[in-house]
Amino acid sequence: QVQLVESGGGSVQAGGSLRLSCAASGYTVSTVSSYCMGWFRQAPGKEREVLARLGLSGNTWYSDSVKGRFAISRDNAKNTLYLQMNNLKPEDTAMYYCAANAYCPSLGSKYTSWAYWGQGTQVTVSS
Predict the structure, then answer these.
(1) Which residues lie closer than 8 Å to 68 by C-beta, 6 or more apart?
(2) What percent helix, strand, coil does the chain show, rounded to 5?
(3) Contact criterion met (CB below 8 Å) for 63 and 50
(4) Which of 51, 50, 52, 57 is nearest to 34 (CA)?
(5) Cα–Cα distance measured from residue 48 to residue 99, given in angstroms and rounded to the nearest whole number
(6) Could you give the C-alpha distances from 25 to 3, 30, 72, 109, in angstroms and in order?
(7) N or C, which end of the chain is more exposed by having fewer CB within 10 Å?
């Protein structure tokens, strides 16, 4: 069983930065390097969307909405996944989730393709 716990959310003004963390635990010593890891968000009334993915080989992928502003990374020793968010915009306001899966689902697949989820952390960006 993989457990994920997000932290680091909060309220920030437009143009500001936040760093989200996702502490992982599970069957392996370093869950974050043994699973495909991802960051998602869900705004009220909208479907959960993938923002960034970090594959087993270290390859990354970003959605167009966050490319150039957000960066996904991991610390294997701390078994923690990060999402550095810069130049935040009001439209970034949402609940943010980290997720893990044994393999990276194909791009375009629904968020339900991911097996493990954290409880989420709220990010609010004011103009």
Answers:
(1) none
(2) 10, 50, 45
(3) yes
(4) 57
(5) 12
(6) 5, 8, 18, 25
(7) N
- Three-class DSSP labels, 11-55: EEECCCCEEEEEEEECCCCCHHHHCEEEEEEECCCCCCEEEEEEC
Tokens of 96: 């943010």
Residue-level pLDDT at 89: 98
Predicted confidence at residue 50, as pLDDT, reads 97
Q: What is the largest CA-CA distance in the chain?
A: 43
Residues 73, 32: Cα–Cα separation, whole Å: 10
Burial class (CB in 10 A: 0-12, 13-18, 19+), 115: middle
